[in-house]
Specification:
Distance between the termini: 21 Å
Largest sheet: 2 strands, antiparallel
Number of domains: 2
Strand content: under 5%
Shape: rod-shaped
Radius of gyration: 29 Å
Number of helices: 11
Strand order of the largest sheet: 1-2
Number of strands: 2
Oligomer: single chain
Structural class: mainly alpha
Length: 267
Amino acid sequence: MDNEKSSNLIEIFKSKKEWIKYRWEFMRRDPDFIRAFDRLLNLMTLYEKGEIPEEELDEAEINYRKEFDLRMPLLGPACFDRTKSYDDIVQEKGEKSFTIFILGASIIHNTVSIMMNNHRWNKISQMLNNVATEELSPEQYSMLREDIFQYLHLDGGDIQNDHLRIDIDLNRVSSITALKRVVNMYIDLEWKSFLQKNPERPKSINRVDFDKIIEVGDSKKAEKGISWDKLATKVFPNDPNGPRKAKQHYARYEELINGGWRMFRFP
C-alpha cells in the first residue's frame, strides 16, 4: 500500500475513533439513554434470577437497539459502565476490547457494510477467536458472533467468491467525503486481498490507439496484397517508422479479433 493510501487509512481510523468517543460521551449523559440503560440492566438481572420471562427482556433490548443503535449492555467483566468516559474504558479494557468494538460497530458497521457469503463468513468467524475473549462468557461470545453476523448483512450465500458487495445506509451518512473514504478503504483492502489470492489473474489490457489498429487491420483485409510500405503511406503518412508500425498494429489486430477481445474488462 503506497504512502497516500496508508495516510488515508490512518485518517479514517482517527476520524472513526473521534466519532466513537464523542458519540459515547454525549450519549451517556442523555437522560433518555440513562433511563433505558439502567432499565435494561435491571431487567437482565431479574431475568437471570428467573423473575421475568425472556420475552420481556427481548422486547426491551429491541427497543434499546432501535433507539440508540447500540447492543445491550452485558453483565460481568464486559459490562458497559455508563459512568465511565471513553478514555477510561480504553485505559481499563484496551483499544481492542469487546466494549470498544461494540461502540465502534454502532457507528461504522451500521452505515457501510461488506456483504459476504458463507465461505467468507467462516473466515471472519475464525478471526473472532482473536478477540479479547477473557472479557466474555461463552454465552456472550455467541452473542458477539451473532451481532457481527448481523452487522455484516450476511446474505445467505448467494454472493460469489471474489465478488465484493457493499451496503450503504444513506440515512446514516453525514459526510459524502467521509463515505467515499470508507468505501475506498474497503475496496483497497479487498482488492489487495484478491490480488494476493489470484497472482496469475489476466492483467489489464494496455490502453493504446485501438481506432488505428482497426484502421490498419481493416485496410489490410480489404487489400490483401497491399505491401507494408504502401499501407504505411495510407495509415501513417510522413512517418519513417510507418511500415514497422503497420506490421505491429496488424499483429495486434489479428490477436484481438481472434479471442483477444476477451481481455476488455472493466475498466
